[in-house]
Design a protein that fits this description.
Number of domains: 1
Helix content: over 70%
CATH topology: MetI-like fold
Radius of gyration: 22 Å
Order of helices and strands: HHHHHHHHHH
Shape: elongated
Number of strands: 0
CATH superfamily: MetI-like
Number of helices: 10
Strand content: under 5%
CATH class: Mainly Alpha
Distance between the termini: 13 Å
Largest sheet: none
């Protein structure tokens, strides 16, 4: 079995595992009102800090236990997934469109366009990303749109740098020179010849960025700078669980595991897609 076939086989396994978890989490988030066993906002101090179903003292219907206010943890995780996926798709897509477009122009055309865009990226990346996100949200105000905008403003540079390098390499390939000889214009070559060959990198980066966006949203929620409503978020649940780790460890552990699995799945899913679509391996 050659190296390319081995890589595709591993990519297929990653696609099934990572994609399966993401599909399950996404469907749960979309169908949250139907699949959540309890109201995520309902409080009952008589049910505070109930353990998960396999531990003595658990109550039927509260599969992962409750928090210090008697709210069902599983339901809060499911509804928190809604916020996480909205931020992931919206912020990552916006950053991808802006960064990939600028990176493609800089890498293919070079010259003054590359110098100007590269200098802007260097200046932008000089700011610590998490602190920059907190500053932007503090200025823009809390809310879902502010979180999405802050993440997109910060992370477009990641796409720009990688796609610039990819486009610069592709622009030196023989097929680009053949297209020029055939009489195609520079914009046409960029869109018809170079862009399709950098799509695998864009897909991998987009999937990775979705995981990063979820982490940033969780950090903002942890410090109470995400959405301004009472809707549950994974970062907010982690912040609550940290305060009661010795009395109810599950309130901290389960959202952390959910967050880690989701971010890791996005990363592996993007890497597997790039391997499957990379023409070099076929």
């Amino acid at each position: 079995m050659d190296e390319g076939r081995v890589s595709r086989h591993r990519a297929g396994a990653k696609l099934w595992l990572a994609g399966g978890w993401l599909l399950l989490a996404l469907l749960a988030a979309i169908l949250a009102p139907l699949v959540a066993p309890q109201d995520p906002l309902a409080q009952d101090l008589m049910l505070e800090r109930l353990p998960p179903f396999w531990i003595d003292g658990a109550e039927p219907g509260y599969w992962l236990g409750t928090d210090s206010l008697g709210r069902d943890l599983l339901s809060r995780l499911i509804f928190g997934g809604r916020i996480a996926f909205i931020v992931a798709f919206a912020a990552a897509s916006t950053a991808c469109l802006v960064g990939s477009a600028l990176g493609l122009v800089a890498g293919y055309f070079g010259g003054w366009a590359d110098r100007v865009i590269s200098r802007i990226v260097d200046v932008w990346m000089a700011f610590p990303p998490v602190l920059f996100a907190i500053l932007l949200v503090a200025v823009l105000g809390t809310g879902l749109s502010s979180v999405v905008l802050a993440i997109a403003i910060i992370d477009w540079t990641r796409f720009c740098r990688v796609i610039r390098a990819e486009a610069m390499g592709q622009s030196r390939m023989d097929y680009v020179e053949n297209a020029r000889i055939a009489g195609y214009g520079r914009v046409g070559i960029m869109l018809r010849e170079v862009l399709p060959n950098v799509v695998p990198s864009i897909v991998a980066l987009l999937s990775l960025e979705m995981g990063i966006a979820i982490i940033v949203e969780a950090i903002l929620s942890f410090v109470n700078l995400s959405i301004s409503t009472d809707d549950p978020t994974w970062g907010g649940i982690i912040a609550e669980g940290r305060l009661s780790i010795h009395q109810a460890w599950w309130v901290l552990v389960f959202p952390l595991v959910t967050l880690i699995l989701t971010v890791l799945s996005f990363s592996q899913f993007g890497e597997a897609l790039k391997t499957r679509f990379d023409p070099v391996l076929w």
